[in-house]
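Issue: copy button drops trailing tokens. Both records pasted manually instead:
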Amino acid sequence: MILKLLLFHLLFLLLSVSSAQKLSKEENSKRKITCGQGLKLKSGYGRKVLNGLRTKIEDAPWNVAIEIETKDVGLCTGTLISTRHVITARHCFAHLMDYGYVSIGKNQLIHGCENDNDEDLVLHGNLTNSFRIYTGTGCGYRKYCKGMNSTSVGIKKIILPKVCDDKQLDFDDFAIVELSESLKMSRKDRFICVNHEDSNLFNENNRMQLFGFGIDPSAGNQSAGPLRSETVKAEKCFTTTGKAFCTKSISKNQLACTGDSGGGVVQLINDRVTVVGVIYEGVTCEASTTDEQDYVANVAYYSDDICRYAGICDKYPDSKAIEKARSHSSINIYIISNLLLLAQML
């Protein structure tokens, strides 16, 4: 009897993994028509995200707050790229230790990267106990957001692309999050377009905006993490990789603070609000510094991963990638079929 229960539990886990919620081609085509449409970027400069422009969620409805259920309750920012997908920073969910990646909150080793052909880590299971996403709100820390409505949604899957490549681990601070359910779009919940080409990223006249729920260190533990923005420009700061770039404030002051990690760097491309970067590291906010840079994951570099895992594609994968996906699906179907047969025999 116990063995039978274990088999059904394993079967449930396999079915959960197999039922991927990536967008279909039809859904992706509809997404292309509507993403970032009718949205504007308000111009203006602040001292930094911390003391930059306070932003209403209606003016930037693609931003989501990610609460991390640790002892002190952590906070990150994310960007909606479909009705059920968010991009953010990898370190919001996992830290790299000497012995591998460890999940935030549970502090458990994430198994993966054992095989030579492994590239990515995928976190499954009951992630809602460790992480929670809030949309439609201009306030990050829920316990200090009295009277502010929001939509709470769980997480089904977290993808950490390319982290098995130990040659450039410092740069792979990017994550794709699959939500447990599709969101209903409204004036406070809107997904934006994804950048697939970075050839014009470093044009001198390009102006972008950086968003985040960064906390105010002067408020101590009482900071609500209000949504703020800052106008920035992109700069090349790495010669060894195209995975990341830097942003510098037009006002030449520091930018990202605690809580801003994972926030989107966006710009208007073909009159659509488009995410081009994800913040993963900034200077300390406790000290007043000027002319500093923030480090940003290059979304275009990860566009193939976003296509493969979320179905958000500019061009669809080649036949080899499709065949690889089919192969994994066939293996899962084979295992599930045999488990069902074995369960019936017990």
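Record 2 (pasted manually too):
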Amino acid sequence: MGRLRVPGWLLDPLSREIVWRVVADSESAEVIRAIRLLYVAEQGVTVVIDRESIRQRMRELILRLGAPDRAGGTVRIYVERLLAAADELPDGEPKFAGLLRTAFDLAQDRSQDGADPVQENRAAIYALGIVTGHVYVEWAAGRVLDAQLRKAVGRHMGRATVRGRADWVRHYAVSAALAIWSSENASDAAGLLKEELDAGPGGSGFSFSDLLANRAGTTLAMAATADPDSARRIQEFLAGPWHLDQVFPEAADLPEGFSDAQIEEYFGGIGGARYQQMIDEIEARVSTTYAGKITGSGRK
């Protein structure tokens, strides 16, 4: 966007005026109050917002902060295929595995017919996010659902499980969708924010197992959309026979249900030494998945 030189004598009053105008605007002030994490890096800026405090404006805010992916029409094709498969699949883990296989089998077929494998995988991940994660994923993908499809999605929501847990499926699918809409770091940060909020009063508690589910989903998304070769490898793998350990590592033994005070006491808080040991353990487990091996998961 270029640079603008501002004289020192003007900088202070100008910055005060800008801040006043932002805060004076009711919608801007509402957004500012909802910010829970702001991270600035050379690659860009990651902002994590508490959805509960701005629920009524969420759709407008998402459209402002990042335009939705213009994949709605293609995503709808995948959603319809997934819903048809869901009607035939038994609840539980068979539904999770079957829907994952169905999505990437379709992506492989369409790619072999000449479609871009990266874009097909993006559509598959968005569709999985909508059908097994949360209907709000549609906001990132573009217009996908009509009233009939929305009702069908609601009928199947929460009926797929992984390692006996429906909430892990949601974490996995939504994190994957967030990763391709925004960035890997933003998706992981959103997952961490959710766990921190859960650790507060009235929450279900901080869960390292949930963080593993988030990270596994993010890693799948990164591998599936990194480049055409990686995209095709993920398609071939997920469309064929695979073992659950290759997709979603064991998570039941990871600590969960901690309050803020307990996180501070037992793990030294977010970023503490024992906390980082748990994060390293999560990374090590995710690195053993097929997607983790492609991406080299285990970030330093």
